[in-house]
Amino acid sequence: MPLYWTENRYTGVVSSWDFVYWQADLIWIFMVLIFRGVDCSRMEASKHMEMGREFLSKGQFADALSHYHAAIDSDPKNYQTLYSRATVYLAIGKSKAALPDLDSVIRLKPDFIAARIERGNVLLKQGDIHQAKADFEAAAKADPSNADVSKKLSSVEEVRQIIEEADDYFDVGDLASAEPLYSSAIKVCQWYADLYKNRAKCREKLGDVQKAISDYRTVTKLLPDSTETFYKISQLYYLTGDVEESLK
């Protein structure tokens, strides 16, 4: 049988049932503390969520973002807060930061159609046509009457065909035909670095070096670690006689 001790001395032997009751009391106290901690975290998250919405409505994105960060730290599985933070990231042009939040939202709430559509929009702009189509198809399945989603699906298929045609011309050296097709695709896939790279090559060969440089500069913004592209820009500036720019 378990022994019972006070702070200063041993007081005897207690029954097994007494020991069980004692353990049950400890478990109950522990659970109460846990639930109180969870409630406090949720209250804190709710407060930050409300402040985030308030700053967002005023267009104060940095302040809104700070509160959404704090809300997610307190309640990391709240899909609504994650979605709100993603919308702020998109509003300030940080699509790469928005994607993980949208991924988390869809993982936590697969039937959240707004998140599917937003992620599809981002992926389409980045040139991930296959995954963008999958998101739009999921949204269309959940809401067949959504005309906007139907248009997006049509746009996905159209740009896929344009890129395929542009690549075919590019591969056989018909750069004059490829260049305007890449321009059309870029209107939809604004953040797809490969399109800018290929259009730059077309423009360079067609003699429009300044526009080629502009495209290569866009590539360096989309892919900041593209040292090859920085070197290419330097080469083109040198060829045009702009030695000072070539050394930057």
UniProtKB/TrEMBL annotation:
Entry keyword annotation includes Transmembrane: yes
Coiled coil where?
none
Report which superkingdom the organism of origin falls in: Eukaryota
Molecular function via GO:
misfolded protein binding; protein-folding chaperone binding
An example GO CC term for this entry is: endoplasmic reticulum
Q: Which PROSITE patterns match?
A: TPR
Protein name, per record: Uncharacterized protein
Organism (species) = Wuchereria bancrofti
Tell me the Gene Ontology biological-process terms attached to this UniProt entry.
Answer: protein folding in endoplasmic reticulum
Pfam families in the record: TPR_16, TPR_6
